[in-house]
């Protein structure tokens, strides 16, 4: 389907055939990004891996992600972090037993602590950060909202300076907040690197700073690029898992028969005397299938970031394009996100009986979405959890 958004032709691919052409045959043709206000103001003038145009900078950034930052070796080396933070999640929910609470708050804390320990080298919720945790979560929500808005000025460039919707002003304010936070992060890491003798990389920011000192790089990794990559990792690692698992819990509370089958599988494979580990996931095909179905029904970024054709491509009279998370622009942190989604959901299902508050019925559960770069629930899920395993397991936690 070919549309005209202001000055630009926009193609929507909404079939499997279109996806195959776009993702396989024409992937290189559609590997770039359009110049938008979100990319300019929120990612240091298109300096991150998400919004940068296809070229030497993006290819180098992707290589860094695949070979170092999100390599299988590095992701596996951080398994203990994910396990410890899952323990903290279960412990928090056990403390809320019998009381109604917002599920996403707990899930966001899990995701933020996991990714901050991997990227920054410490738990965000332990304090000491330049921005309080709750304020930082609001900043992330604003980042994903503004990253996905339809800004009229992007489609009609000659009126962009008017900022008719006020989005650009909000982007500039948010950019300033993130820059102050990221500048402090880099200063702290640089000070630690100077003070430590024989300093070894401890987290992803350390790795990026080492790349910044590498004179052999094709494109020099400047300071603002390190900030942009760090912001990408923190934002993507926090939002995606929390949104997906909240949607999973919402769908399961509406479909109790699926919930029952999942817990039956967990009892059969894991038993009642331990918690689920990442190594258990391949033995839990039903739970794996639930996660995949939720990602199909409620993709974190349903429209994804738009792609730009690097050259004119016409098949017959139509363009064929489907913005899908695959090919060259596929999210490099996909494997990490999947691990967090699977293990956290499995332990929530295994460790607790879940119900809706008061006299609320499953069919009354609101499933509206909020549109942005991501698509979380419009109304956060409120539930009640009760322990379903022997109490000594929670005491051990």
Automatic annotation (TrEMBL):
CDD domains: CYP71_clan. One of its GO terms (biological process) is secondary metabolite biosynthetic process. Keywords: Heme, Iron, Metal-binding, Monooxygenase, Oxidoreductase. GO terms for cellular component: membrane. GO terms for molecular function: heme binding; iron ion binding; oxidoreductase activity, acting on paired donors, with incorporation or reduction of molecular oxygen, reduced flavin or flavoprotein as one donor, and incorporation of one atom of oxygen. Its cofactor is heme. Its main location: membrane. Pfam families: p450. It is found in: Membrane. It is a single-pass membrane protein. Belongs to the cytochrome P450 family. This is Uncharacterized protein. It comes from Salvia splendens (Scarlet sage). The lineage of its organism: Eukaryota, Viridiplantae, Streptophyta, Embryophyta, Tracheophyta.
């Amino acid at each position: 389907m070919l549309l005209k958004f202001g000055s630009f032709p926009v193609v929507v691919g909404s079939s499997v055939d279109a996806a195959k052409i776009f993702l396989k045959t024409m992937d290189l043709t559609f590997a770039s990004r359009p110049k938008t206000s979100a990319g300019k103001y929120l990612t240091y003038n298109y300096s991150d891996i998400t919004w940068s145009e296809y070229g030497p900078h993006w290819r180098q950034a992707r290589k860094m992600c695949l070979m170092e930052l999100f390599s299988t070796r590095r992701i596996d080396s951080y398994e203990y972090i994910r396990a410890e933070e899952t323990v903290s999640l279960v412990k928090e929910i056990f403390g809320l037993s019998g009381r109604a609470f917002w599920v996403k708050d707990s899930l966001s804390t899990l995701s933020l602590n996991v990714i901050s320990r991997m990227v920054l080298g410490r738990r965000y919720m332990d304090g000491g950060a330049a921005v309080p945790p709750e304020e930082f979560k609001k900043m992330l929500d604003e980042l994903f909202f503004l990253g996905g808005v339809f800004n009229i000025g992007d489609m009609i460039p000659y009126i962009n300076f008017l900022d008719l919707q006020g989005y650009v002003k909000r982007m500039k304010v948010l950019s300033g907040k993130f820059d102050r936070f990221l500048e402090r992060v880099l200063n702290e890491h640089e000070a630690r690197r100077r003070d430590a003798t024989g300093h070894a990389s401890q987290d992803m920011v350390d790795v990026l700073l080492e790349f910044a000192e590498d004179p052999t790089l094709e494109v020099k990794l400047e300071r603002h690029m390190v900030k942009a990559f760090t912001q990408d990792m923190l934002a993507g690692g926090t939002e995606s898992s929390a949104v997906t698992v909240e949607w999973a819990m919402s769908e399961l509370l509406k479909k109790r028969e699926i919930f029952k089958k999942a817990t039956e599988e967990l009892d059969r494979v894991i038993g009642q005397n331990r918690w689920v580990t990442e190594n258990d996931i391949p033995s839990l095909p039903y739970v794996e299938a639930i996660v995949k179905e939720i990602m199909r029904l409620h993709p974190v970024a349903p429209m994804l970031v738009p792609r730009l054709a690097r050259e004119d491509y016409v098949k017959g009279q139509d363009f064929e394009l489907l913005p899908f998370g695959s090919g060259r622009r596929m999210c490099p942190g996909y494997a990490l996100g999947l691990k967090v989604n699977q293990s956290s959901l499995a332990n929530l299902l295994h460790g607790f009986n879940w119900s809706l508050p008061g006299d609320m019925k499953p069919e009354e559960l609101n499933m509206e979405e909020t549109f942005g770069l991501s698509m979380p629930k419009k109304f956060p899920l409120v539930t009640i959890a009760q322990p379903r395993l022997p109490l000594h397991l929670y005491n051990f936690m």
